[in-house]
Amino acid sequence: MTILVTGGLGYIGSHTVVELLNSNFEVVIVDDLSNSERFILNNIEEITGKKPIFYPFDLKRKELLNQVFDAHQIDGCINFAAYKAVGESQEKPLDYYENNLFTLINILQEFKVRNISNFIFSSSCTVYGQADVQPIDESTPMKTPESSYGKTKQMGEEILKDFAEAHHRKVSLLRYFNPIGAHPSAKLGELPLGIPNNLVPYVTQTASGIREKLNIWGNDYPTEDGTAVRDYIYVVDLAKAHVQALQKLISSGEEKVIDIYNLGTGKGSSVLEVVQAYERANGVEVPYQICDRRAGDITIAYANANKAERELGWKADTPLEEALRTTWQWQKYLESREV
Ligand SMILES: NC(=O)c1ccc[n+]([C@@H]2O[C@H](COP(=O)([O-])OP(=O)(O)OC[C@H]3O[C@@H](n4cnc5c(N)ncnc54)[C@H](O)[C@@H]3O)[C@@H](O)[C@H]2O)c1
Ligand SMILES: O=c1ccn([C@@H]2O[C@H](COP(=O)(O)OP(=O)(O)O[C@H]3O[C@H](CO)[C@H](O)[C@H](O)[C@H]3O)[C@@H](O)[C@H]2O)c(=O)[nH]1
Fold first, then answer.
1. How much distance in Å is there from the Cα of 28 to the middle of ligand 2?
2. According to its record, what are the GO cellular component terms (predicted)?
3. What is the pLDDT of residue 127?
4. What's residue 192's pLDDT?
5. Which of 100, 116, 292, 318 has the highest CB neighbour number within 10 Å of its CB?
């Protein structure tokens, strides 16, 4: 079967392409390289011994997308392509709505006219906002997200539910918690662009001396050590969930399926716990200072991922320290490429 993977050279997409190829799917990647680099394609080939087909263009260009569907018998899509910087989405909301929603609709139009099913969407636990109860399961009520980025994820989910209902198609909405780590080969990982927003990339750059100190945004939260709590999920575990969600859609005898899964470990870790685990895992020091809270941050979010375990037979079981070790190895790899 041939799967279109949009954003397949990005962080989560590239790891998922590896898992798809290892599971004998044919892969067609469309990625405009707006947040990724071409060498990732070679590294995917080095890891798997297989070369995915790659088209470098912007998915907003309908005519090019149309040609891809003409050229390949596409059996499903995993749609990673999106802008994802929360802060930037507040400054450029129209760019976020345009990129994250028009691209989605363009692909779905092709699915509609060509009668294709099996669509997997990258959603986020940001759709829950600050949930009233932890852990968060799929029936936890959604709240209005703080950012335009978060709103594109909620809207994307609604578009897909309507699409599945109206056209009798199979879709899976995967709500990721906080993905971290890199491929064990150290050939794939998150590419740092400017000053990292996310915790683990910032910790990594601090440990390697690129940043002087980590700013811990607040230690006065109502948590055990006062720092905010998240559910950090290893990216390879997350990638595997996509293959399992896809296999479930493909093998379902139903005409219409709307699956929704939380993808997390079920365990919350505080910012300080992540810093300490990083130091232990990699034998490095991470200097930090406590700062004021970051605007828009929630106190705590961790998943109840039992539904994914029950229905997909999937569980994120890589320990935090192991995931953090791969991050450090990826950083060393990036540094070795620079010299
Ligand atoms: N990383 C996270 O913390 C996180 C958490 C929850 C959800 N998500 C979602 O998961 C998906 C993948 O995230 P990621 O961390 O791998 O991001 P990423 O930026 O590394 O990957 C996205 C890829 O899509 C490409 N892309 C963006 N717009 C495009 C367009 N118009 N046409 C073609 N290609 C385009 C980029 O070049 C990039 O390679 C995104 O939809 C993101 O919103 C990410
Ligand atoms: O330099 C930093 C960076 C982060 N943090 C703290 O670390 C925690 C995690 O922050 P991240 O920015 O890594 O992750 P968020 O949970 O804030 O947001 C991320 O995960 C969300 C889903 O939970 C969305 O998907 C969003 O796109 C993605 O950026 C937060 O308490 C944050 O305040 C710091 O203390 N210092």
1. 31
2. cytosol
3. 95
4. 81
5. 100
Q: Is 7 a pocket residue for ligand 1 (Cβ < 6 Å)?
A: yes
pTM over 0.95? The answer is yes
List pocket residues of ligand 2, CB cut-off 6 Å: 84, 86, 124-126, 177-178, 197-199, 202, 214-217, 228, 230, 271, 294, 297, 301
pLDDT of residue 339: 64
Is residue 82 in contact with ligand 1, taking CB distance under 6 Å?
yes
ipTM of this complex prediction, to 2 decimal places: 0.97
Taking the CA of residue 126 as reference, the ligand 1 atom at the shortest distance is 6
Q: Which residue segments constitute the domains of the chain, with CATH numbers given?
A: 2-180+232-264+304-318 (3.40.50.720)
Active site residues: 149
Q: What spacing in Å lies between the alpha carbon of 280 and ligand 1's midpoint?
A: 30
Minimum CA distance residue for ligand 2 atom 20: 178
